[in-house]
């Protein structure tokens, strides 16, 4: 289709997608290598495993708003390139420490990268806002999320293969090299240009306050925040415990977790492609409501199932609907937020989601000792229903005069 062809010819879009490919290679190799490494060293201790997820997501809660505010002040290309370079250097530093020090340092490989991503990710959103026409945003987000979906299939296989074949040291090295290649791809972006919003001089604190006020006076963004909180609470319960769904509920070896991820990823690929086809006809808020409902049902089934094929089917539908949630959320943020506030809005909403997730993630290991997996998964499903209820008032929301359009026209 002509519009899709124009999207793939966009130089900025190409660079972001190639960068995303390298980042996903590094992230999945790192995540699975660290998970399997910690499993081996702790004999599957639930607390240690849950702390991996805390190291990955806690920085989002702490640094997201600050990173989003700086993303609105800094040049997006330069910010993203330097974040990838610093992530690579931090990974290599962890590798050196791992060779000569304690194994527990592997947690820092995840922690430092997660901190830097809070400055890089909103800059990527800003590039989407700056360089993609309004009618291509949802299609662009669909392609971007499909890259993530592909690695939901390939990532666990790649990460497990790297760790089992080469060990933790080579796996960490692969992660660092992948981050450097991502930085090289982003270096091919057009030179950053000054934006209209940068003409006024304000302090960091003033910009943070104005970002909060902006979200509070926009009904759709406020309701999105409540939805984020509920979904975060639900995901936090199950994120660190998925491996126990495999080892205890299904009675399979821990390495079989990769097949759950693979089935989920296949669903994401199909779902992402479906949303891309429907990008011009499906309203993002409707995608979000439908995705939340189906994911709630899928999580509920997984919590009760002791049959491998039933669990895999539920995981497939979770993956199928996940792009509806992710693309719906990101498209709503891009469509309903002025370019000058993209970083701060992202920086406010992300901690609501991640802070809630980290909260329940931190106690997931303790709850695992006191409650059954079924109860924990059903509680997570209930949180998704609550999140869907918050978003329902937006289901029939009409398209407004997009706040981002004026800034786009100014750029032209």
Summarize the structure in short:
It is a multi-pass membrane protein. With 412 residues, the protein is an all-alpha fold. The protein has helices at residues 2-9, 11-42, 46-73, 76-100, 106-131, 137-186, 204-217, 219-238, 242-249, 257-277, 284-304, 308-336, 342-370, 373-391, 404-411.
- So, CATH architecture? Up-down Bundle
Q: Work out the radius of gyration.
A: 20 Å
The total domain count is 1
Give the percentage of residues in beta strands: under 5%
The CATH class designation is Mainly Alpha
CATH superfamily: MFS general substrate transporter like domains
Oligomer description: single chain
Indicate the overall shape. Answer: globular
Mean pLDDT: 80
List the secondary-structure elements in sequence, H or E: HHHHHHHHHHHHHHH
Number of beta strands: 0
What distance separates the N and C termini?
Answer: 24 Å
Main sheet overview: none
Number of helices: 15
The proportion of residues forming helix, as a percent range, comes to over 70%
Low-confidence stretches: 401-412
CATH topology: Growth Hormone, Chain: A
How would you portray this structure in words?
The chain has 412 residues and is mostly helical. Helix content is 82%, strand content 0%. It has a single domain, classed as MFS general substrate transporter like domains (Growth Hormone, Chain: A, Up-down Bundle). It contains 15 helices and no strands. It is globular, with a radius of gyration of 20 Å. InterPro entries: MFS (IPR011701), MFS_dom (IPR020846), MFS_trans_sf (IPR036259). It comes from Bacillus lumedeiriae. This is MFS transporter. Keywords: Cell membrane, Membrane, Transmembrane, Transmembrane helix, Transport.
